[in-house]
Amino acid sequence: MIKIISKEWLTKKSACREGVEWFNNQKETDMVKVLNKLVKEDHWNWANWTICRVFNYKQKVQYAVFSAEQVIDLYEKKYPNNKKPREAIEAAKKCIDNPSKENKAYAATAAYAVAAAYAAYAAYAAADAAYAAYAAYAAYAAADAAYAADAADAAAYAAAYAADAAYAADAADARKNMRIKILEYGIKLLED
What we know:
Elements: H1 7-12, H2 17-24, H3 31-40, H4 44-54, H5 57-78, H6 84-97, H7 101-120, H8 122-127, H9 129-148, H10 154-169, H11 172-191
């Protein structure tokens, strides 16, 4: 894992112009300190983007699983008989310590099953849009946790969907609090 962030690293990773400008207008280069500063200044998307580009495989899957677990109960309250999102999270967990080809294939299959299962509920969801919205985000977070076992950027999506699920379920502060909680977990993973 890199410990120092630089303009060259950001450019190599195709960071957005605004993010590179922000970085150039401050003095910090230590990865963890930069991430903490991004969180403090409410640049959550940039922090999430950065975290997901410095993680190793295990950290990416851990981050995605943590994110999905923060909101899976929202989905399960809406659809108590559909265990597919929980199964997707469990499949991803198997890949954390044993990223075998079989476990990755199982996680990918579980992720696709979540997407298919959620699509089956789409008509019902339209009648109950507010509640279904956060259930959808929770399901997407679970699917992305499983996808993270086989796809690098899925960890970032799991974190974003988890924050959106919290936002849809509660007041505006819920999204901010969930994003910060997830980002702090990601920073902790980098410090360990």
